[in-house]
């Protein structure tokens, strides 16, 4: 049975956080995978009814490097009859992905917004084919950042090892192996970079016909705190394939959950006119007077995004306003201290769950542990703020397309 103390949205969000269970661990891939397999099922089992059925999978760009953490972590958990707020009970699978946990994610998945991939041209060749950058983007096509495409490709091709659930089965093949499943739901969830990757992966798999055994309306996403990863055509496609399912406050599906005081969700749109509530220019004044280093970092981010020659547009969102800091920051360090709180703690408060600290804290397991600064510096957007940049300016008029997409997002009282 479902956990009576947590509704379906809270359970899904909690599972998405469990994907970060080894985020502070440093070690080679084998040692991280062992720790992941030991810790994750125990954590998941503490939410009644859920069980890991695919994975978990840890992936590293340099598998033998003992001084870094995992670059990607993902898993699928199943609930036989999850209770939803409308009274339905459905067999439900949640695919969860960790947020940024390594320098690789900063360099590749987060920072590679300077070039883009044509989503459908890539998917025509297969989601398990490495994406290629499009150097001459065309109007009207759906584009995603190259870094996001690489992350989706890595997740799609990372099969569980023989010691994990569904060993050797890649994600698309896993869903394709299901019988006709008219009453089964699949939910993609992630926080931060995990939000960007899961929402894009869900759309990519849907467009690739990986979910042919499921009604399209039973494929849902529940991302939180993620940046924009595609242009307006991508955002419009996402809204069409994943229509917003409304509910009170955080009880929505197919929308990005956004804290207006979280700078990560303000990336990567460079034009305030087309997305006034979520754009890079909002970041310097989120907590008070702008700080020189933060302004410089944002300008660097704008340069990177502009190099793509597309304008990034956030997907539909439900936005809330986190509690502002008692005092405005005057240094870069003070700014980052506030960011860390706004990027996680305020979401926990808004969605109404306690931080799963007992499951996420790294104990002495014979592996290394990242410092708080190492963890924070790998977060999307936050990493860019460590870089002193050049500036880029320019704006265009908002079009009706942008305005109609803005209308899909809503603000809610905290």
TrEMBL record:
<dbReference type="Pfam" id="PF01764">
    <property type="entry name" value="Lipase_3"/>
</dbReference>
<dbReference type="InterPro" id="IPR002921">
    <property type="entry name" value="Fungal_lipase-type"/>
</dbReference>
<feature type="domain" description="Fungal lipase-type">
    <location>
        <begin position="179"/>
        <end position="266"/>
    </location>
</feature>
<dbReference type="GO" id="GO:0006629">
    <property type="term" value="P:lipid metabolic process"/>
</dbReference>
<protein>
    <submittedName>
        <fullName>Lipase (Class 3)</fullName>
    </submittedName>
</protein>
<dbReference type="InterPro" id="IPR029058">
    <property type="entry name" value="AB_hydrolase_fold"/>
</dbReference>
